Amino acid sequence: MKIEGAAWCLGSNVSTDEILPGRYMGLEEGAELGSHALEGIAPGISQRLTRGDVLVAGPNFGTGSSRESAPRALRAAGFSAIIADSFARIFYRNCINIGLIALWCDGVAEAVEDGDRIRVESTGTELINVTANITLPLLPLSPFAHLIVDTGGLIPYARSRVGQRLVPDDRESKT
User: Fold this and answer.
1) CB 111 within 8 A of CB 134
2) How many structural domains is the chain composed of?
3) Which residue range is the domain that position 140 belongs to?
4) Which of 7-21, 45-59, 111-125, 159-173 has the lowest mean pLDDT?
5) Residue 129 domain-assigned?
6) Whole-prediction pTM
7) 94 and 143 Cβ atoms separated by less than 8 Å
8) Beta partners for residue 63, in sequence order
9) Which of 29, 46, 111, 136 has the greatest count of CB atoms below 10 A from its CB?
10) Residue 169 belongs to some domain of the structure
């Protein structure tokens, strides 16, 4: 997991309704869904960002409903990762489940400004603000969450596991 891109900064308590307004919940993945990302808080951002850029936010990012469409819209818009002071629990898990990197970093909202070049090395333990020459510790993904993200999300991970025995079948040993 190597992440490098320009930062797009948001504030605290950004809700899923601001990330993707409810009227777009029925859209499928793709450019149309991504074009509405953050429409409720930063209209037009999806047309200005470069694929691979990073969303930076304050505490409690993704608060509100448990809609999976909100992180899907951010991924479709082109964000490679979200780095926030903290996340709403369900939003965070939805990010992992769809294969979008979400990293906790205390103080990131104060240490990064719009347009700063930021980087996360493959270890996922440090955020480097290249522009401001600041390094902050990250809470790395758990090994299991890392595996899910690397596989592209929970569904691709589960598909990769189908047919693999996780627990021996006792019936085979009795025949």
Assistant:
1) yes
2) 1
3) 3-163
4) 159-173
5) yes
6) 0.88
7) no
8) 15
9) 46
10) no
